[in-house]
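We store amino acids, tokens; thus:
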Amino acid sequence: MIFLTAGLELAVLSAMAHPVLEVAATAVEAISVLPEDQNRLYLDVILATLPDVIRQVLEARMQGYKYQSEFARRYYNQGRTEGRTEGRTKGREEGLRSAVLELARTKLETVTADDEAAIKALHDRRALTELVGALGQARSAAKARAALALVIARSRSK
């Protein structure tokens, strides 16, 4: 196993020393037999040392590649699932934050830079949802300001 690992490390070093597409592609293919954590590390090193154009072409090739091993398919699918979940979560959070900003602009007489910064700093979906409801129900600028201050104060104290 030591000789195998040394050969794979040489493939990574070759990709670093000769940052051309075919050398990098060969190195990426060679390291696919490694355990997941080591494969990720070596792949990151290879991609980080490539010029942008070559890295983009290699990544595009990898997108269309059908993984042969169960290990690689599992790793790839896990990453896709995590990316989708993270994307949905961040998308919802951004949508709520945008709604809060629009409601604040509608309900308050002025939205200060501090107000915007405080709203943008909110990452708790519950707080953002609460704020959408509170601002939506506020019948005056004073009540909207109080609701905004309350939710921001609560989120800072957590």
